[in-house]
Amino acid sequence: MSALLEVDGLEKSFTLHTQGGVRLRVLRGVSLVVRPGECIALTDPSGAGKSTLLRAIYGNYLADRGAIRVRHEQAVIDLVGAEPRTILAVRRRTIGYVSQFLRVIPRVPALDVVAEPLRALGVAAGEACERAATLLRRLAIPERLWSLSPMTFSGGEQQRVNIARGFIADPPILLLDEPTASLDADSRRRVISLIDEAKARGAAILGTFHDAEVRAAVATRSVTLHESPGESHACAVS
Amino acid sequence: MSERPLLSVRGLTKWYGAQPGCLDVGFDLWPGEVLGIVGESGSGKTTVLNCIAGRLEPSAGTVSFATRDGHVVDLLRISEASRRRLAREDWGLVHQNPRDGLRMNVTAGANVGERLMALGHRHYGRIRDAALDWLAQVEIDRARIDDFPTAFSGGMQQRLQIARNLVTEPRLVFMDEPTGGLDVSVQARLLDLLRRLVTDLALAAVIVTHDLAVTRLLAHRLLVMRRGEIVESGLTDQILDDPQHPYSQLLVSSVLRP
Fold first, then answer.
1. Which residues contact B20 (CB under 8 A, 6 or more apart)?
2. A27 pairs with which residues across the strands?
3. Residue A193, CA distances (Å) to A223, B197, B212 in order
4. Would you call B199 and A107 a contact, using CB atoms and an 8 Å cutoff?
5. Please, are residues B73 and B67 in contact by the beta-carbon 8 Å criterion?
6. How do B60-66 and B204-208 pair as beta strands?
7. Residues B208-222: tens digit of each pLDDT
8. Do A85 and B33 touch (CB under 8 A)?
9. How far is the first Cα of chain B from the last one, in angstroms, to the nearest whole number?
10. Residue A35 near residue A223 (C-beta atoms within 8 A)
11. What percent of chain B has pLDDT over 90?
12. pLDDT at B215
């Protein structure tokens, strides 16, 4: 497979046992392919399952059926039904995920939050912190905040910490869930340039970009989950 | 990534008379992996921990452990002496109540040094240096080395218990509600410390807790237990964000999120 990420007939429903067993079918046979250097924008309206798809690919949600094939180290791995430790290994080396909200860990300084993915790959603390500092500087997080827990940061600052954390280890696959939602114009431009660089180094990016301007700037293709499944029906955006 | 689990539990069952403590529990624990066992009181999570850690004799099952020299032994079939030796060299056990895991009538330094002496260390200066180093690692002022744990706060006692357990560089640590009796602010500090230590030392750990937030921070993987049985297992964030079993959903949805 030449693609880095291939989603094939993915189905995901939620059964709410605590609410009368209601069953919500969110992903009904989603297929798409993301190749190196591509940035695909999911353009369905709110509630259509865009975040669910990103979370299912990351292993945060358990898919019911279908396949999620990723190129991991030299092999192709199907993440549907994979062992937890396989998913953790794929997260460490292959997939970066920028969620909408930063999950703050008490007492851990922003610099360490950002450096952590590199530390998990065995990069020495000094080098990891240096690269984290470079990235925080690029994202215009004031240096006086680096040693503080992001708990007290503004929404936009937390989001930039989250972005730095997702990008620092240069993962081959990036999942971006509204990475610019609470950012001002200057920060948006900085994030766009990070995404452009990731594409240039050959990353495969799948994301939701509510902001039409950002989408136009970063997306190489747009895809909707259900009306036009897969790449054949995708319409070009730029 | 190592190719063999450190610990393999199969068919672990414990009856208390006619009452099941745990039923047919099985899982693998890999080196460097932190496994959380969650469930309400009486779900059997502590029974499982105690059976594995050799504090309780199970009614059936096997617990295979990969020793440092590359052998696999069944912890339930080896002699008491061999099990004690393994426990000393390869395991740590952190109790919910630090008073159960510390010796309250000897100094903090002696509490940490004692486990080294049990492994045959005899050089007093080196043992004291190791104790000082570990007090610093668990954020206890080194000047407190000659104080008794009775003079410590609950949070400090818990950190001292952790130092006492980790000084021998075990490969596997069992923790029973390690943040149980602590104030929330003290919990956060302890969690952060545990998180750093398990990562830096690549420790494998089994953590029993009823606190789901603790597992989110510490555990790679979760087992959800109810009435002695595992009802669901998987990646920690997957179980917390997308629980499948009705009981897991109830457990997750019952937590207040401040």
1. B13, B14, B44, B227, B228
2. A12
3. 22, 36, 38
4. no
5. yes
6. unpaired
7. 998 898 899 889 999
8. yes
9. 37
10. no
11. 66
12. 92
The complex scores an ipTM of 0.90
Contacts of B242 in chain A (CB under 8 A): 14, 55, 60-62
Band (pLDDT 50/70/90 cuts) for residue B192 is: confident
Instruction: Give exposure, B226-250, as e/b (b: 16+ Cβ within 10 Å).
Output: bebbbbbbbbbbbbbebbbbbbbbe
Q: Could you tell me the CA-to-CA distances from B169 to B130, B166, B172, B233 in Å, in that order?
A: 11, 5, 9, 28
Q: Is the pLDDT of residue A234 over 80?
A: no
CA distances from B80 to B66, B74, B77, B83 (A): 17, 12, 9, 5
Cβ-defined contact of B217 to A17 (cutoff 8 Å): no
Measured between CB atoms, which of A18, A84, A106 is closest to B220?
A84
| Tokens read off for B224 | 């959800």
Closest CA to B201 of B113, B92, B126: B92
With a CB cutoff of 8 Å and minimum separation 6, the contacts of B214 are B36, B178, B179, B187, B191, B207
DSSP string for B56-109:
S--SEEEEEEE-TTS-EEETTTS-HHHHHHHHHHHEEEE-SSHHHHS-TTS-HH
| Model pLDDT for residues A76-86, shown as the tens digit of each residue | 999 999 999 99
- Which domains are assigned to chain B? 7-253 (3.40.50.300)
The predicted-structure confidence for B92-106, as pLDDT tens digits, reads as follows 999 999 999 999 999
- The answer for A107, left when phi > 0, alpha when psi is -120 to 50, beta otherwise, is left
In three-state secondary structure terms, B233 is: strand
Distance (Å, whole) CA A94 – CA B241: 22
